[in-house]
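Deliverable D5.2: sample structural annotation.
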Amino acid sequence: MGFRKAIVVIILLIGTLYVTACSCGCGKTEDNVKKGFVTVIGNEPFTKLAIKTDDGKFYVLKSSKELSAELSKKQGSYYLIQYGELRTEDDNEVLIVEKAIPIKNESK
C-alpha cells in the first residue's frame, strides 16, 4: 500500500510541476511594451490618443486622465509604452497603459 501511495504522490507532483512550468510565462518574448511616436488619430470631435510604432501600426492609448493629458502635450515625442492589456475596440487595437516612459529619439 505504501508503494502505491508513493507512485500517486510522484505522479501528482510531476503533474503540478508540468502545469506550473507551462503557465509561468518564462519563455515570453514580449514584455507588454510598444515603442513609438505619440499622435492623435481621428477627426474632431472624435479624436483618440494613439502611438505609431516603428513598423507603422497605430495603437489607441487608454490611460488615466493625468497620463492622457501629459501624453497629449507630448505629441510627436518618442515613448516606450508599458501596457497591461491589449484589446480590440471599434476595429482599433487598444493598449491599456500602465506606464509611459519618454525615450530620446528624433521627433516627427
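Annotation notes: The first helix runs from residue 2 to 23. The mean pLDDT is 85.
The annotation will be released with the project's public dataset once the embargo ends.
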